[in-house]
Amino acid sequence: MSSAAQIAKLIDEFPSDAALEAYVSQYHDLVGREDINTYVRNLAINVKLKGSKFRGLAWKIYLRVLSPARETWKSDITTSRAEYRQISLKFGNKDSSSFNGDPLGTSDICPDDSWRMKFRDEELKSLIRQDVDRTIPEVAFFQSTKIRNLMCDLLFLYAKVDPKIGYKQGMHEILAPIIFTLHCDAAATQHLSSVGRLPQDLLLISNGSELAADCYIMFSKVMRKCRKWYIDPEPEARDATSELEYYIRDVYHNHLKSVDIELYRHLERHHILPQVYAVRWLRLLFGREFPMQDLLCVWDFLFATNLEMVSSFFVAMLVGQRVLLLNDDAGNILSTLMRYPSPDDVANVIEQTKTIEKSRHGLNFAKTKKNIDQKTSQVINKISDIYSKIDKGIKDIVESDAKPVVERSKFDFLLKKYEEQRQMSLFCAARLDAAVQQLSSLGSAVDGDTMVSVATVKQVRDFLCGSLKWKDMQKHEGAIHPATIQWLNKQINADDNIEEAEEA
Amino acid sequence: MSYDYLFKIVLVGDCGVGKTQIRNRYTLDEFNPQSKSTIGVEFAFKTVNIDGNEVKGQIWDTSGEERYRAITSAYYRGSVGAVLVYDVTKPKTFEALENWASQLRQYADENIVVCVVGNKIDLPTREVSTAEAERFARGNGFFYMETSALDGTGVESAFRQVMKKIFEIVDSRQQARKKTVRAGSIGKTRSIKLTDADDVAEPSKFSSCCKQM
Predict the structure, then answer these.
(1) What is the pTM of this model?
(2) What does the pLDDT look like over A425-445, one tens digit per residue?
(3) CB contact under 8 A, B213 and A137
(4) Which of A83, A310, A437, B189 sits at a 20 to 30 Å CA gap from A488?
(5) Helix or strand or coil: residue A266?
(6) Nearest to A456 by CA among A444, A439, A442, A471
(7) Which residues in B lie closer than 8 A to residue A132 (C-beta atoms)?
(8) How far is A384 from chain B (nearest CA, A)?
């Protein structure tokens, strides 16, 4: 099969029957599958969407603008476009005739503050315009007045809908590649619809006259994930740290450190503050660090992984330049990171990201396993403690039979103690249950040894919460590992010895 | 290229007043009407000769919108000069200088050399007068220059003046120290801080870029 890029070339150069055929067959290849989601996702993860005329469609699937079931696409897209129209009607451009009152009035005189609102809106618009006019100047597409106006309208709309963020510099460069991609999709569809028949749902989804709506929807989906990087800390709180800074610190001090300690130490030694370069990396989703065509591949990957690999990608960018960085001094390190060298093949950075992500899961898994092992031994300690106390309590009660009146208070005390221990067992059972859930969610990543330890933990949990009885466990030989019983007996004896020694 | 001193100079001011253009004009001698808005921070270098010394300027500019403390403190840290920029055709950007000056006082070294720059003087629609801006600068102990990043007027000389003033401070301090400190105890090539104690203490953040470039 021809590659996406070859087909794209064909479509652009010869809007012929052959191009139409290739286009339609590629569409069917994409969507005529049982599991569209996995297939389309794999395309992005393996950097196979370069130059594709269906990139916008793929993004719509990744970002859940379209559900994984093709049958519902029609209703998905119609609903979201209707939502956009409502928002647009509510906040979009209004002409001044709809405003009441005196434009020069203050709030005391003016019955409604629509004029003041209008002035504020005008200010917001000119702020947006200032950035939009400076959007990706090296790409001619963004010089078009029509596209610029569209960008201004959509950013203004978003600012009104999400007033906590409003408009912040950088959002324009999140929107720009989205418009570019959806526009390319729609242009190809329109182009080929003049040659022959196209599938109905494709015509509906990739429709140039709905560009504004579709871009807005997709932009808000991306912003849902990225907006945290645009939030200012509260102005009153002097030492407030923004979420962005927390995020950057976490990536740098935890993630990078665990992946490449040598590089981390080198950067630390040179006092390279990650926020100096990383604010731009994150706010623009790496938009300025790669040429446009590479960036789109990066976004394919980030969107397809639900923007959950941003941190690993960030680390991959650092590790990818480690040779250069390790041989640089402070000034050059910053220069490298602030003018990130164009990679020979962006697929390498993505490959690196996948490797980092895998090792990260490995690390997390090892950590979880260690935690559970620790908890298990803690719980076993507690069990032995409980039993030794109960035994001792019974012994005391039996012995105190001779003088019941005197020992009444001791009996109450022991009952109380027993109840306390029971509560503690239940609590431990609940904690273990949570751990079991966590381990179980790792699914196929779990190895044989771990399965055994999960089974042990489950057994201990059941025992603690009472659904498995101690006597049942003793009845079945092998229900408890002989080593555990031996260990338990030793613990109980040791406790007895200590207490006897204390009493003596 | 080797150099004797490294001065970090920051550009501050509202969005769109031309900070990046001024930096580009100064460090690259170019004006690109289509430059992108600055997100976060950017910097560039330029080396000049002052009284026979090679002085390397590390010129930083930041987004005018940048209010994140994360960046603010990193941005001002170690800076010895600041250029406060406003747009002479937009009074609002001039009024905002008050805020920028107070941020400067909060985060920067108290001895920082500050130059107020009125940019875009090539435009016919000027609205802030020279006298007004000079009054503001004098009142705050800053000096005032006017520039056009578009045609280059004043840019070079504004930076030269800032660097010269920093150099004078550093030089006079060194002269004074020579009497008390034995020669050779301080390497000549290093980044500069204006607070006296720091001068000999721990090398600052960018000290290692002083070695060679």
Answers:
(1) 0.73
(2) 888 888 888 887 777 776 666
(3) no
(4) A437
(5) helix
(6) A439
(7) none
(8) 51
